[in-house]
Write a structure and sequence with these properties.
By secondary structure, the protein is mostly helical. It has 21 helices and two strands.
């Protein structure tokens, strides 16, 4: 079979360059199932591309997250995703003999990586149109400054886990050294270094620990305090916006509940980290923003707890049953199927009430949540107990409808977090019926 022509190689090379990283192994596997010279050429081209990308990742690794959007959608320094490939080609065009050094893991490979980042910065400043057409001058300079700081970031990143944990004196000294080196790199160097570190953290709250170290450091780290404050302000502002978003969610379906739960988890984790890491002055703007966010969420959760009680009322129908003379008492009404919309709303609200148990204390509403959960558990369990008694006594006009009603209460108890009460209702319902009244009444009451 004939080999690939020049035009075919050019077209394939262009196609392979545009493939995402996750597609290259699939393309290699596909080429492996083929035979002939062309298939061998394709495999070789894919392997060359994979090797080139690994080397690029080594060289540009400290800056790689800057070319991806943050998963938490927080504001951060960000550049177009296609830039690294173009920068890499421009930076390595004149020094291809250096590339094999990047396959090692030693000081020489890091020196080569730093040199290639410097070359990329030079190309970007000298001929920005060749790699980033239509970019504003400030954008070009921002990326070039980050490339200048790649050596500092490369040495700093191994210390990041320690800085977000319990750093020793030696680790704190490394942080001060990184800040001094970034400051010496030029105006805005510290700010860019903090942006690089921030981009490396998928969990924004961990950055607060590093920023707190900078603020708590001695005079040597003074150069980084203003930049650290700006980043803290960004995170606190994001917390305030998330609190507004959380308060605006209406729980109409389970998708909205999941969205609300994700927002609540993020706010709770961030508030918890602020409480532990940042000693805020009570009269500071940050402290006020944090208090407002906490209060806004607590009030909204209080509304959801109140709505949960009303939602349970809608799925626990009762009827007046005579006792003696004119005296009556409410008893479960089992003759109607549960309303689908009311049941869905009850499921959503009770799931939320149960799910926020680990984080409600952060917002200051755990006591209200617990009181609501206990009250709802008692009401659901009591209603189910009385309904099962009716079922055992043969008072249910339609046993199938009655079982669905009682099964819904067991489900809601489980969603609320009352697992024992839910299991008790399910066990009793499994053996309940008009012919087993005596055995059912002999069973222990619902928890």
């Amino acid at each position: 079979m004939a080999d690939l022509s020049v035009a075919q190689r050019a077209a394939l090379a262009h196609l392979i360059e545009r493939c995402p990283d996750r597609v290259l192994p699939q393309l290699m596997g596909l080429a492996g199932t083929m035979a002939g010279d062309r298939a061998a050429a394709l495999r070789e081209m894919v392997e060359v591309e994979r090797l080139d990308r690994r080397r690029r990742e080594v060289a540009f690794g400290p800056l790689a997250p800057l070319f991806r959007a943050r998963e938490d959608a927080l504001e951060g320094l960000n550049f177009p995703a296609g830039l690294p490939a173009r920068l890499w080609r421009a930076a390595t065009r004149g020094e291809p003999e250096l590339l094999p050094q990047l396959d090692r893991d030693d000081d020489l490979s890091r020196m080569v990586a730093d040199r290639l980042c410097h070359s990329a910065a030079v190309v970007l400043r000298d001929a920005p149109d060749a790699v980033w057409a239509d970019a504003a001058p400030e954008q070009v300079e921002a990326l070039a400054a980050c490339l200048d700081l790649a050596p500092v970031a490369r040495r700093a990143l191994p210390h990041l886990p320690a800085w977000t944990g319990r750093p020793s004196g030696a680790e704190l000294a490394e942080l001060k050294l990184a800040l001094r080196q970034a400051s010496a790199a030029g105006p805005g160097g510290v700010e860019k270094l903090l942006e690089i570190l921030f981009a490396q953290m998928a969990d924004a709250r961990l950055m607060l620990r590093v920023l707190a170290l900078i603020g708590a450091s001695g005079r040597e780290a003074t150069a980084g305090r203003e930049e650290a404050d700006l980043l803290i302000d960004r995170i606190v502002s994001a917390l305030a916006r998330r609190a507004v978003d959380v308060a605006a969610v209406d729980l109409e379906d389970d998708e909205q509940r999941k969205r609300l739960a994700a927002g609540l988890d993020w706010c709770a984790e961030t508030l918890g980290e602020i409480d532990v890491s940042l000693p805020l002055r009570p009269d500071s703007a940050w402290a006020k923003a944090v208090r407002q966010a906490r209060l806004r969420i607590a009030l909204r959760l209080s509304e959801h707890f109140e709505a949960a009680e009303k939602a349970v009322d809608a799925v626990l129908p009762v009827q007046r049953t005579p006792l003696a003379g004119r005296m009556t008492r409410p008893t479960p009404l089992l003759s109607q199927l549960p309303d689908a919309a009311a049941a869905a709303r009850a499921r959503v609200l009770l799931t939320l009430t149960g799910d926020v148990r680990p984080i409600a204390a952060v917002f200051g509403c755990e006591a209200e949540r617990r009181q609501t959960a206990e009250a709802l558990t008692g009401r659901l369990a009591t209603w189910a107990d009385e309904a099962i008694e009716q079922l055992n006594d043969g008072q249910a006009s339609d046993e199938g409808v009655a079982r669905k009603r009682i099964g819904l209460t067991a489900e809601l108890l489980g969603l609320l977090g009352a697992k024992d009460a839910s299991r008790t209702v399910r066990r009793r319902l499994a053996i309940a019926g008009s012919n087993t009244g005596a055995s059912s009444r002999a069973s222990p009451p619902a928890a």
